[in-house]
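Take the subject:
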Amino acid sequence: MEFTNNNLLPYINKNVFPFLDTYISKFSSWIINVNRTQLASIVGTFFVCYLATVRHYRYQYINELRRKYPDPNIALKNSQVAAEVFDITFRREFPALHHHGFELALLRSVTIPSISKLLIATGEAFHRPQKREEDSYLILHEMLDVHPHVEFLREKNPKMTQNEVALQTFRRDHSIARLNEIHARYPTIKHGDFLFQLVLFVNEPIFWINKFGYRKLDQLEINALYKMWSDIAKEMNLTDVPQSAEEMIEYTKKYSEEFAKFHVACQKISDRNINNVVSHNAPSWLHDFVRKTYSCRLTPTDCAATGLPQAPQWMQAIYNSYWYIHGFYIRYFAFPAKHSYLGTAILPTEDNVLMPQYYEKGHSHPTYPNGYTFTELGPAKIKSNLCPMPHMRASTCPVAHHVD
């Protein structure tokens, strides 16, 4: 069987081809003549071994965490422990559901009329929804990704210096400073609205992972998620922060019931955000269907506030089935991720800009094709005093440099 033309690859010894032809011919004959029962036994044995191996490794992360930190409350007391647990759980175990929860946290926030009115007034969410979504993701995850950045660099260089670690910490400080700088320009933001948006980043991942994940979150993991966001809340000078993740979930429910209501501003911002996400993440022939599935993701109160019709039962069943199948696949067929799924850059480029990693994963409409600095995150009209020398190398001007 001549399956290739020797003339196409003259640099390969021609004796190789007869050998391959013979081997492939024998393999084809074996497939045709093999005993079907024997083949079924081989395939079945391989399948069972594969499932057993996946099952052995699937729970290794949570079992190691439980052995290492038998007291789940340690995550509430130690920020380093919280960062480690957060990274393993939400960057390796449940990256898809965590990101799903993040997107819905942004969407649910616009069910509050005062928030939607402000977003329309700034023009960012309505005229530049893709930029707002990416800015929100990048500025918040710069606060959350210090630990995985440091661990990645330490894996490459075990002798990593304290200055190199400090550069990653500076990035976190810098993103908090930029976020405070942005919100300082809008003194009319209600404290409750600000707190509502923040606690949604705790509420949504917990809800979606516990509902559709291959397992429910351990209390250690819930405490770590709460600790990460409560620390950010304190550094942003927010007061009356709920004292536990459970209190945050209750706060979200009560605030939504009290303040979420229909307003044309809520409808406009919601439609704009949904259309943006759908157009960038689904083929054109699926746009209408995917757009309608957003009703499956929101509570009846949220749907009423944004003017979205309630999803029919058959659509809700299809949507839920997708995520149940995802959880089933992860539990029984997928090996644990060896590395954290990150969207933020590990290090600046030679031009001292940060290139989002999700662009390398097929992002079709990048907001920052040439990378970003912290001064570019947020509304363009809000000029920043941060990092006045963005094109200097990090060794002379860390990305997190701040001017008093």
